[in-house]
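Q: Sequence in, structure out?
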Amino acid sequence: MPDFERGEVRIHYFERGGTEQGGTQNGESGLPVLLFAPGGMRSAAGFWKNSPWNPVDALSDRHRVIAMDQRNAGKSRAPVCEDDGWHTYADDHVALLDHLGIDRCHLIGGCIGGPYCFGVMQAAPDRVASAVLQQTIGAHENRHAFYEMFDSWAQEIAPDHPEAGDETWRSFRSRMYDGDFVFSVDRDFVRGCQTPMLVLMGDDLYHPQVTSREVAALAPNAELVEHWKEEAVVPRTVARVREFLATCEA
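A: Exactly. Output:
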């Protein structure tokens, strides 16, 4: 599992499938897929193992799949700065694509990965063929929960970041979770975003159903999937995602 270093930032990632592993099993090859795992501020590649379906296992026979640990999660490390926010993560994601020589890819984001997907769609729209949003987080009578999640993570890693004082952490949290809707972009952006999206609906405190429904209603090329994570329908979910990615490459 390699690391990508950019200045003081070290991003841990791994790849499966594609030419890096000697080609796909069936001889076909689709665009690479960059994954943003669930887990909130602790988003790391290992969290996919606890997801209702694991895109690493489900897609690597046809796609070069890249799974990563976000900065200061898993084995990735970076300084904590007062102006950190969603744009900071988007910079990491685009830089990783540059490092891997990927000009165009699909994005799949679970939980906090929803806003991460939108960040890349905003920063580098020509490089995103499609996005699968799995129960994206969103603001809906739950801001306290995101503050608490952030504070718990910050308290956990603070001993390793003497450069960050109380005001730095407050500013960082504000940039992440003081916003509305999906936090990283506003409704006008989603309304004008032409990227095809498959929206796997959320249904709990962090992943409000209303957010998934609104994304699907606003985005001009989005499809909502209401039932996707129950054990009985997971095979159908995997088949639909594979079909969606292939269609977006046609």
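Residues 3-247 form a domain with the Rossmann fold fold (CATH 3.40.50.1820).
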